[in-house]
Structures are given as C-alpha cells and as structure tokens.
Amino acid sequence: MIGASTSFYGYYGETIEEKVKKLINIFKGANIQPYIQIGAGKNNTEYNKLVKKLNAYRKNAQVVFTIHQSIWLPADDFYINIASSDKQVKESSINCIKKNIDFARDIGTRNISFHGGYATDKLSQTHEFAPLDSHNSITYEEAYNNSINSLEILKDYAGKEIKLSIENFNYRPERRYLYSQVNDFEKLPKDIGVILNIGHLYYTEKKLKINSYTDEMIDSVRNRIHEMHINDNDGTEDLHKLVGKGDIPIRDIIKKVSKGRDTPHLIIEAHKSRHEYSDNDLIENILELNRISKV
After folding, report:
1. Nearest alpha-carbon partner for 111 in 37, 58, 29
2. CA–CA separation, 10 vs 16, rounded Å?
3. Distance CA 184, CA 54 (A)
4. How many other CB atoms are found less than 10 A from the CB of residue 277?
5. What tens digit of pLDDT does each residue of 29-39 get?
6. Three-class SS of residue 147?
C-alpha cells in the first residue's frame, strides 16, 4: 500500500484527528485507499474520544492505520530514548511505546515503528524539524544493551498480534544515533522488524562514502522490513522532501527491497511547511509513488 504520515502537517499545531482528516481527503483526491501513519506529534484529544473518531474513520473511509514513534508523552519536551541509562527516561520511553501498543490494539492496527535509541541519556530540540541534541553521552555498548533490553520488554508486551519495527537512522556519531550501520542490525532481537527510511540510507551512503552501503543494508534487513519511509534528499542532509525532489534513486531502491518478496508498505514522510508544499503536491506525489512502485 501507498501511505502518508501525519508528520506532513508537522509535529505540533493541529490535533492528530485533524491531520488524519486532511490525509483522508488527500487520498480521496488520489482515488487511493487511505493508508495513514500516525507519526510523532502532540496529541490534544482525550484518548477515548480520539480512538472513537479514528475507528469511525476506519469504518467509513476504509482507513488503514499504522503508528510511528508516539503521541503519548509524559511532557511536551520529552523525547523517547529506549537506550538511555537514566532509569526514569528509559522507563518513560518504554511506557510511551506500551501506550502505542494499547493504542494500536484499540484502533485495529498491527504495525508500530519507533527509533531504537541514542547513546545518550537525554535529548532536547530547539525548534520543530531541528536535529535532536544529545546530553550526558554514554558508551555505544551500554546504549545497545539498554536498547535491546527495552526491545525485549516491548516485544513481550506486544505479543504475537502487533509487529514492532525500529527505524534505520542516519550515520550521525556527533548526535549519538544508534542503528545506522549494517552490522548494528545483527543485535536486534528475533521478531523485531525494520521500517526502512530511504532518505537515511542515501544520506548515510554519501556521508560514509561507501557506494555499496545501500545494497549491503538492504541485503542485511530485507526480510525484516515491514514498511518503508519514502522521502528524498540531495545527500547533504536529511531533508524529508517529496519523491523526485532530490537525488535518491527511489524506484531502484524499492526494486531491490522487493526482490524475492512482496513490496513493503510505502509511506511518504515529507514536511509540508519546511518545503512550502501544498496538499495537491502530496496528492500528485502519492500518484507518482504508486506509479513508480509498479514499474
């Protein structure tokens, strides 16, 4: 399926419910069944009311939902880090994802994805779309041990019916990102999947100057990929542009991932205000991604 993330409308501002409603209209404009990822953002709607509204959308508009990160945070400035060595941060991060798992069950979705963590205890951000800043760094070994421990807890909580995936990060040692290199994914517990972000793939390939990086990463995680984040950039930064607005060979990457298996769900994760896109731009991009994914 071709999908789009609520992050198209930013992380703050409108409610999740309003963003979902707008995306339903986008998919109607493209004459394609709505596949909507509820991405990171601030939720201003009471839980039961939001669940009731989303289930009505699911019934009336045939929406299929998926979830990325969490809208259930203990504070507006809290950032999820399941790899933290700070006990409170780690427990709060796990609880955010557990809330997502409950949310998934209540709105009838099976796929949840999130970030595998950072080699730091705490994170902050100066403004929307700015990079996360790391505070109180810890060793990568400690961070991966924390991340894996958290993933095992979450896997047990999710059971068999909810699929959990972590996202491949950019290679950003200065920001202490985890899960950006091929051998990092060998650490993942069994049954934890991957949401493959092709913008991160392309940026990392250019950053590392390893031309085989994308192919090696795809070969390593192909059978774990449940969904893909589709966005474009020029290789110098993680820009989250629409398909065709950068230099990424998107069609070729989708073909490589789909070799010997079904094509994963493709979710456009672009930023409207950051690039001054219109809703019509997203409609056209959904149609373009639908076209190139079938070639």
Report:
1. 37
2. 10
3. 36
4. 17
5. 999 999 999 99
6. helix
The answer for residues whose C-beta is within 8 angstroms of residue 30's C-beta and 6 or more apart is 283, 286, 287, 290
Interaxial angle between packed helices 16-30 and 47-60, expressed in degrees from 0 to 180 and rounded to the nearest 10: 10
The pLDDT, as a whole number, for residue 295 is 67
**Count, residues in the chain:** 295
Question: Which domains are delineated in the chain?
Answer: 2-292 (3.20.20.150)
Instruction: Name which of 124, 135, 121, 138 is nearest 84 in CA terms.
Output: 121
pLDDT digits (tens, 9 = 90+) for 3-30: 999 999 998 889 999 999 999 999 999 9
The two three-digit tokens of residue 127, written as one number = 């403004």
Phi-psi region of 244 (alpha: psi -120 to 50; beta: other; left: phi over 0): left
The pTM of this model reads 0.95
Amino acid sitting at position 52: K
Taking phi first (over 0 means left), then psi (-120 to 50 degrees means alpha), and beta for anything else, what does residue 98 get?
A: alpha
